[in-house]
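Discussion board: Methods & Data

I've been asked by a reviewer to show the raw model output for two of the constructs in my manuscript, not just the figures. I'm not sure how much to include, so I'm pasting the format here to get opinions. Each protein appears as its amino acid sequence followed by a line of discrete structure tokens. Is this the kind of thing reviewers expect to see in a supplement, or should I convert it first? Here is construct A:
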Amino acid sequence: MPSFQPRPFPPPSLSGVPIEYITDQLHNLANHFWDKPDTADCTIIVPFPHAHGIPELPALSQTSLIEPSFTFAANYENSTLPRRATQPPLNAVPRISMPLHIDYLAAHSSYLRGLFSGALPLNLMYSAAPPVSSSGVPADRLPRLMPCSPDHPILFLPVPDPTCFHLLIHWMYFGDLSIIQDCLHQGLIQWDGIARNVEYLGLNAEIKIFLGNWYHAWLDTEREVESCSGDSDTIYSDSDEDE
């Protein structure tokens, strides 16, 4: 079975170019790649372990014109490619399949950047019980490379809160936090859920500052610092950064 060919980021041709500059250029080109599955060079599969039937994705109509592709697996741990089912079996775990572009993911997520560069979790393709990673991610939350072609990795990615993952992907492409902000204000997504996703993916300071400011403004009137894990300060505000 062919294995995925690692893709370092930034690529050698952009060696020495600041990631911030590359990210800005990617945002400028986002309209040419968003909702373009034909040009995708990777697929992310995200399970919804607590959903019954096809889950609802908040603000999906504001972010995508493409109907989401759901499949069903017999259980959460099953790492084989599931088949589409019109009537899923009892207790089946729904999964969303998202054709995406590696550069957008790697530019924003240090965790995915490492995976696509060939870090350890990509070698867990056939492991039934992957070890706990050095970053502290529990074993059942480690990503796994599924059977794929060398130039198109298919990554099983069990994020902590799958209901808002698509919103983070939209932000990675466009750099626009307004939809996430609206969903938080309307209670369509939970702050702690998206914050845990941010920590899991190792996203950059921009969204951490945004979440820190939103938390202090709407959830913590006494401005008590709270993090995703409860004892770190990785979600912070812009005032924290200035200190």
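Construct B, same format:
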Amino acid sequence: MKLDGKTIYAQSSDIKARTYLEYRKDMKKKAIVELEVLDWLENKLKELYPGNQIKVYKSGGDKFLWFLRKGGISREPDFIAEIDDKKIEFELQYTEKEDLKYYDFKVSKVIKRKNKNLTPIENKFFLFIHKPFLKFAIFTPEWIIKNGEYGMVEAWRSYAFRVPKEKFEKLLKPDETLKSICEIIDAKIVLLNFQHSLIDITKDKLSHILQNVIDENKIVKIIPQDLDSFFKVCFILDNINRIPQNANLWLIYLLSYINNNILLEDIFKITYCIDFLYSKIKLKENELNQLITKVKELMKKIQNFYQSDGSYRSSLTLSPLDETRYALFSINLLEDLIQDMIYYYSVSELKPIKKIYENVGDVGKTYRLIKEAL
């Protein structure tokens, strides 16, 4: 059977759970912490090394990427610190739990094989932040080996160096400046969880379509003739792990929906579809240039809908909370796209993302709006 570029053919056996955005959500939580801690770490090192030239940055610099297209976790260190002419790697770990019996450290981050022997990784430090205690510690892999025990961590299903609570917590030092850092981290994670619920909300709305595919074992055929149907097609394709033919053409066609009349719900649908199609294709130069222009345009439109109370509003018929969710979801994906294009296409026309949700008008106000409503 010859497949048409605008036709989707799916059997019930093709239905798969959506995992890519879930993976990215988990990676985003880690990135939120890392990017909020970066300036704090630089200031802390300036205290510890007075008179030295200090610079701290993410591995990869402006090309730092918080998720990998094909999944997995980067083995790059979390931070690079330049102290005068010397470069030191920093690995960040943090906990939100108060009652830990052991503090665990992955073997691969502590030791490496050198001349057939396992030795502590040199020129590397760990930064540990204990959020409930508002305390921190900076220590070496050698300290972990000396004070830890090699044992199984059931949650990781692997062995690790486990430092007993009694030894580790003696190392922690209080720092009141961590309070504001932890508060903004908590606020941004609330924003992330709030906006991500759109995935489940959309699944519920489209459940009748997905259910028909599963229960009736029929071929699904949806032609994207307008933005709403385009979104439904991309969402279903995403959930059955299929890619449209001529996906590059789909992307360019999708960009034509961006105009002066679109509202936040439209922007959410467009951004979701862009993200879905972008991740499946290799862009040509003219396609990349069009996408760069439209990403800038979408971000500006969202920012224009920001209100002084922390909400986003573009419609008189939708609730401010729903519209704020659309805005946050779109900002989240657009920041991903910006950083991804910088990483994979060496784009210089876009400003690198320095902190997650940096394009939100006022994170604190939006956080309070959400907390009061939930």
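Answer (T.O., handling editor elsewhere):
This is acceptable in a supplement if you add a one-line summary per construct. For B, something like: The two ends are 50 Å apart (CA to CA).
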